[in-house]
Amino acid sequence: MSWKFSFPGLIYLTGLFLPNLFWTRHKPQGYEAAVAKEKPSLVRLERIGQVLVTVFAFFESQSAYSGFLEQLCFLLSLAMMLSYEGFWIRYFRSPQTLRDFYAPFLKIPVAGATLPVMAFFLLGIANHNPLLCVSVVILGIGHIGIHWNHARNCG
């Protein structure tokens, strides 16, 4: 299998990291208390998945986007990534409470965790990149699990 640089992967990572950098100065009150209660096993999976996704998002197969399914997956992944940006716009315009952070967006629970995981998984399919898909599953178990617990605990 021949690999090349993935510009969509770079764009997705930029779209993922920029709002998160801004968020570090706009965390909801009580977030640090929620972090203290995180399960170590989920945190480990999340960290491993973050590193792997960051690395493998930069690669795509030479035959990426070659068929209808791949093109459909890319369009769906793009819709998920744009929805993720919409989630952040809504959060930054809100009072920035835990409820605002964990409120469903477009009826998707814990959208800040779920949308990028779905976007990167679909990008992995579109790119013919099974390493990205596996990495996203690892990330998703940890990341969505952690934030699902946070959301449940904040009511």
UniProtKB/TrEMBL annotation:
Name under which the protein is recorded: Uncharacterized protein
Keywords, ordered alphabetically: Membrane, Transmembrane, Transmembrane helix
Transmembrane segments annotated in the record for this chain: 6-24, 68-89, 101-123, 129-148
